[in-house]
Amino acid sequence: MPEPSLSATTNATAVDNGDVVAGTQSLVLDLPPVQGTAKVEKSKTKKLGIVGWIAIFWLVAVCAAAILAPVLPIPSPTKNFLSATSEGPSLAHPMGTDSTGQDMFSRVIWGARASLLVSVSSVAFGLLFGGILGLIAGYYRGKLDTIFTNIFNVFLAIPQLVLALALVAVFASDPAVSVGKREFWLIISIGLVSIPIIGRITRASTLSWAQREFVLAGRSMGAKNKRIMSRDVLPNVLPAMFSIALLGIAVVIVLEGGLSILGVGVPPSTPSWGNLIATGRNELTRIVGACPQVILAPSIAIFLTVLSLNYLGDVVRARFDVRESNI
Amino acid sequence: MLGRRVQKQENRTIEAQARPERLLEVADLHTSFKTPRGLVHAVNAVSFTLDRGKTLGIVGESGSGKSVLSRSIMGLLPRQNVVREGSVQFEGNEIAQFSPSAMRAYWGTEMAMVFQDPMTSLNPVVKIGRQITESLKYHLDMHRDQSDATALALMKSVGIPEAERRLNEYPHQMSGGMRQRIVIAVALACGPKLLFADEPTTALDVTVQAQILNLLQQQQRERDMGMVLVTHDLGVVAGRADDIAVMYAGQIVETAPTRTLFAQMRMPYTEGLLKSIPKLEQPSHSRLEIIGGRPPDLINAPSGCKFSPRCPYAQDRCHVEEPPLIEADTPGHYFRCWYPVGTDAGREALERNLAANVPQAQAAVAGDAALAGKIETALDQRIEV
Description:
The complex is a heterodimer. By secondary structure, chain A is mainly alpha-helical. In chain A, 64% of the residues lie in helices and 7% in strands. Chain A contains ten helices and two strands; from the N terminus they run E-E-H-H-H-H-H-H-H-H-H-H. Chain A has a two-stranded antiparallel ribbon. In chain A, strand 1 (5-16) and strand 2 (19-30) form a beta hairpin. Chain B is 37% helix and 20% strand. In chain B, helix 4 runs parallel beside helix 7 (176-188). The model of chain B is unreliable at 13-17 and 368-385 (pLDDT under 50).
């Protein structure tokens, strides 16, 4: 920062209150910028807005429906209304039925249960391990950083779908395996895939925060590394982790759908949005007279949920996009 | 953990009985950074002593190694790629080769540091109160109500109005000056015996600078702390430090009790620093005096005197032979110069350079346009402190 100095410039051009004074002798008072008063510009935090509220409403509704599915007054997702197969939307079946007479509305709600369970758990898994590894790599740097970053890179090089496919195929491909076990391995494999992505974001953010003077100040007051990492660095890094995690949930919902199409997602006996689309696709191509809602209903549910998560992810990121000038 | 704490207390009682006056003794301290270009000698053979309750001002321009010196003494520099040699004695204990975990017994409780920029040295997402009480709870085993009360008292003593309300605020809700007061409160929390103030006012509004410096001085007196005040402004240390060490290119080039330094400076660099302070009695629109050039590259430092390329007094000898730290007539006054300011040798050297049209010498006297040609007057012109 420059020392305060009073310098006289002759024949210089100086901007004074917006007027250009040229060719005159003007006095330029060169004071160090005072940070407190210098931030005239308004912080451009993205407001939630009506779209944001709609997004929140939708997510809350989906989560509530998923949690409350067993007590909601809806028919069982596996009950076959044999008198009403492949029907369009009606009062009795708001989203119609599929070719075996199962209520699509009920299946979409029960599907949210499996989809959200898998996506939230796997991202939480990635957040936990990716976060810890990224924090350590970014804080200690040096050899640890090299090792972790290389592990991340190796993991990133493996296509997500292939890794998940391999893990599920090895550990839970047996048709006799329970739904819970299949879901567990899905969560683990997708979680493993998300570790390097979250880890790298955390590492990058930690790198910049760990250079701050308050970290050195903490050290100069005798705080241990563990304490500085958890109390000083982590709270600052969390917003970045959360914004990527929200987007990650959206990605995983779609990924689970892809795995279902390949036959290694949540088993078809338990509906998930992914396997609803997978079975719906079968129906539409094979069964004469099948209705489009078998694919439309879960697709729209995925679309709206992913859109909401993306939008909120952006809002979170914009809100916590902390720049030096805003501190 | 507990064992260490008990041992520390025992040490303290022993120290309290002996109570040596000498707080800090740094001898031949070298600190270098390994970089791809080579070793950067940031601190080069620095020695000084600091007594309890005294203030040492370390002055130098950017890149002269002042901050590295204070961090090096505290052992705060990273271990990797840093070479640190020499001796640092704190109350008679050699701490230079201590590991970070051994230093933790000193950090906060024995020595603390006030950092340059209060905007970055406080954690933006942690409340002020917790930033102060954290070390109280950790080092002094205080309970919540006890540490809150201590934090309040600390905040009041550093001059923060409405301290109760401020405890629950975040750093961004306070002004720069207020934040620096908080940083000082954090540093003072555990009652350190030695306080490093690393350019504590550089990032602050000019109007707040004096307040913060007075606060530091007042706290230092009340607590009988030793203080190392690092700054690039001779004016800052003039009235506040007992001794001043002027640093250039990682070396102490002149050190003396404050009064002696200002009255009989010997090092041309010190003179240049002092001349570059704008003076009130100068007519408006007068040019600011500067020291031409830049500090040397610390990887390939020039042979001879490090200041010689910029020095108005420099002779051939200065470019080849490095002057040692010589003791002046006054006790405690040391300097590194072959042709010291205010001696016949120095005067002759400047005259020779002026006659030979050496640009550095011309620049040094050109500032006083009216006095051009009158070297003696130019030389005798000093600022009264």
